[in-house]
Amino acid sequence: MAGATLACMLPFLNLWLHVLAAVIWIGGMLFLSLVAVPVLRQVDSPLLRADLFRKMARRFRRLVWICIAVLILTGIVNVAYYGNTAPGSPYLKVLGIKLGLVAVLVALGVTHDFIIGPRAARAQSRDGLPPTGTDLLMVQLAPWVGRLNLLLGVIILVLAAALTRSH
Ligand code: HEM
């Protein structure tokens, strides 16, 4: 009896974990851009400002990759439990668009965290040497990739709600 109840609860707990990871990730991005960055702008010392931002971004980055891994794993289980994979169904179309955007988001995240971010950080710590043109380009590109990620995240949320309603 208890085993059957637990088996019924598992898909729901999985969906809850999926939504929790989405909340932590998108909520964290909104907190960074709407609260942390405006507050940091009020810090007078540019060195301290950059250092605080880098520390926050590094800590948040670890959390983001954990959330994305949880979203993908629990997302696969969601498809297995709730999915309507009949060929040509609206559900499958919405799921296809959502997964396409998730793939773009992961690709952007990898580009930001492993290419743009390290080059932008290097521009600020070249031991007195002037930053190269590419380094400066990366400094300008980094916040735009962050904003694009946030926009994609919000669109994926809309698609997630549409998915639930397209059974
Ligand atoms: C990174 C991004 C993702 C975000 C932000 C996200 C967000 C969400 C949210 C908020 C829900 C709940 C919607 C509701 O109950 O109204 C949901 C449901 C769902 N998600 Fe995701 N998700 C993501 C990735 C994925 C992935 C990678 C998959 C598949 C591999 C997936 C498959 C599903 C499925 C099947 C549901 C249940 C829809 C239903 O009720 O039939 N999601 N998602």
Structure, explained:
With about 170 residues, the protein is mainly α. It has one domain (about 1-165). Helices cover about 85% and strands about 0% of the residues. It contains 4 helices and no strands. It has helices at about 1-40, 45-80, 90-125, 135-165. Helix 1 (about 1-40) runs antiparallel to helix 2, helix 1 packs antiparallel against helix 4 (about 135-165) and helix 3 (about 90-125) packs antiparallel against helix 4. The protein binds protoporphyrin IX containing FE (HEM). Protoporphyrin IX containing FE (HEM) binds near residues 76 and 163.
Major sheet attributes: none
Strand elements, count: 0
Query: Which ligands occur here?
Result: protoporphyrin IX containing FE
What's the structural domain tally? 1
Q: Beta-strand level of the residues, as a percent range?
A: under 5%
Order of helices and strands: HHHH
Uncertain parts: none
Round the Cα radius of gyration to an integer and report it.
20 Å
Tell me, what's the shape? elongated
Helix fraction, binned, reads over 70%
What is the residue-mean pLDDT, rounded to a whole number? 91
Number of helices: 4
Distance between the termini: 30 Å
| Multimeric state | single chain
SSE class: mainly alpha
Sequence-ordered SSE layout with sheet pairings:
Layout: H1 2-40, H2 46-82, H3 90-124, H4 133-164
Helix pairs in contact: 1-2, 1-4, 3-4
Protoporphyrin IX containing FE (HEM) binds at residues 18-19, 22, 68, 71-72, 75-76, 78-79, 82-83, 99, 102, 153, 156-157, 160-161, 163-164.
